[in-house]
Request: fold
Amino acid sequence: MNESTKYHALDASKCIGCTHCMKSCPTEAIRVVNGLAVIDHERCVYCGQCHRACPTHAFYVEQDDLDLIRSFKYRVILFPAIMIGQFPERYTEDQIYNGLKKVGFTHVYEVEQPQQVLIDSINEVINDQETPKPAISIYCPAIVRLIQGRYPSLTENMILRKAPHNLAAHFAIERLMKEGAQREEIGLFYATPCIAKIAAVKSPVGESESVVDGIVNMNQLYNEVMKVISDVEVEDNSEQRKNLSSEGIVWSLTRGESCHFGSRSIAIDGIHNAVRFLERLENDQVHGIDFIEMRACDQSCAGGILLTGNRFMTVERLERRAKRYPAAKDISQETIRANRIELKEKLILEPIQPKPHFIFGKDRMKAVEKIDRAQRIVCFLPGIDCGACGSPNCHALAEDMVNNKAKMSDCIFLQQMWVDEGKIKAKKAFLNVQKKWGTDRFKADCNKRGRRNEGF
Amino acid sequence: MKLTFTIQGGDFTHAGHPSSEVKKILKQLAIDGKTIKNIVIALYEAEVNVVAHAWKGTVNVEIDENKITIWVIDEGPGIPDVELAMQPGFSTASSKVREMGFGAGMGLPNIKKNTDKLQIETEVGKGTKVKMVNYFS
Reply:
C-alpha cells in the first residue's frame, strides 16, 4: 500500500502508548510497538474510533492545503448539511454561506440537494427481486470497508448507488459549465466530517476516479469561517440552496435514509453496534428486513470526528431546519428531469469486491496449523485482555505470535511466571518490558504525559 | 484442529456463540463465503434446537484441510420420530419458544439443506447426537 492511501496517521511526539486506541479499534488494526501505536492500514476502515479514544489527540488527519483552492477560477465548496449544524444558533444560513465565500470559495453547495433522484434510484434497487435482502446502504464509507474486510459475504447486499457527494459534484460542474466555465477552471472541494469520507472521496470504492479536487477538514473550515463570519445581515444566498429539501437536510442523521426505504427497515449507528449486527446478519439470523442503514458514528454524521459542535445539538438544529424546507418531491428540478437517463447511469457504482483481511495465508494446510497453534497458545495466556503485550487482547496476541509478529515473552503474566519458576532472570524480564514500552515509562515523573490532569 | 463449546438449554440470549466462533476461523482459512454461510446456518439451527428442547449440550468441531465436522450432542428428550422431525414445518416447540421467534419447524430441514452429510442418533428420554459434515470446495 502506498503513502497516499493513508488518510490518518500518528504524531509520535504526542502518542503515549496507552492502549486506548488499540482497544477501541473494531478491526484490531492497532498494536503498540516500542511504546507507540502503529496502524495496520490494510485492516483500517477509517472509522475514527482511535481518534475519539486518544487522550492526547495524537492521531491526525491528512488534508489538502486550503491555499490549493486559489489555483482555480471557480472554487466550489461542497459540504454536507451537517456543517450548518455546527455553528451557534445566532448565525443564519446566509451568514454561514457568506463566511464560506469570505474564506475564498466562489460557490457554496450543500451536497444533499438532488435527493429525490437518489431516493427513486435506491428504491429501484430495493424493489428489484434480484437484490439480496436486506439491502445495505453504502452511505457510510467506513461501513463499506468494514463489510469488505470483515463480512465479505455481505458485499453483495450493498446498494450500488452513489453517495450524495458524488451526485452533488456532478450537478455543481454541470451548473457552472452552463454558466460558461471550463471544466479545468472548476475546483471542487469537499468539506468532510470524518476520515472515512476522505478515503471515499480520494480512493473511492466502486468508482474509477475521485470526483473532487481537494478535501477540507470540517473542523478546520469551521475555524476559518468563524474568523471572518459576519454578525450583521448579509446578502441572500438562498438561490444556492434552492434544491435543498427537508429529506436532504436530515439524510446524514440516524434514520435519515431508512425512513424512505422498504416496508421494514433498520437504522444502526455506532461501529461496534454495526459489528454486532453484521455478525447476526451474516449468520442468517435476521429475517424479513428490506433495508439497513448503517453508520460508523454514534448519531451518524453528526458524530463525525472532524466536527466541532456537540452531536446532539447538531441533530436538533438540523431537525428544526428541515421543517422549514420543502419535501424533496415538491422541488422542481428541471436539469435533473432533462437529464434523467444520463443521470441514471451516473448514479450507478461498480460492484464492490470483498477484501477479506483476516486470512492466515493462502496455503490452507498451513493456515489450519497456525490457527490450531494460536488456539493452543490462548490456553497459556491469562485471558484478562490487559493489552500490556501491545496487542488488543489475549486472542489477538496468540494470532500475532503465530504470524511471527509477537512472542510468548510479550505477555507480562507469562514472563512473571517464568521468573517465579526460575526460567528467566528478573533483569531480563524487566528489559523485555522496557523494550516494549520504553525506558522512561518506569521513572517516577509527575509531569509524565498522560498522567497529570488527564484522569476523569 | 478441534474446538469445544457448551450450550445451556433455555438460554436463547447466548445461542449463536459457537457459530460465530466457527465462522471467524473459517474466514481466517479463506473458505468461500457460500460454504461458510451453509455451515453457520446449520450450526446455528442445531444450537437453537438444543437451547429450545434440551437441557444442555456440547458442540465439538473438527476442522482439517478439506472439511469441517461438527457434532452437536445434547442431554434432552430425544426425537421420537426423526423422519417426522425432518419434515418442514413440523415442530414440537412450546408456545413460549415460538413467541421468541423460534420453533418454526425448520430446524432439521434447514440443517439438512445446508450440510453435505447429516447423521442423527437419538434416544428418547436421553438425548440426541447430530453429526454434520461440510466439505470445502
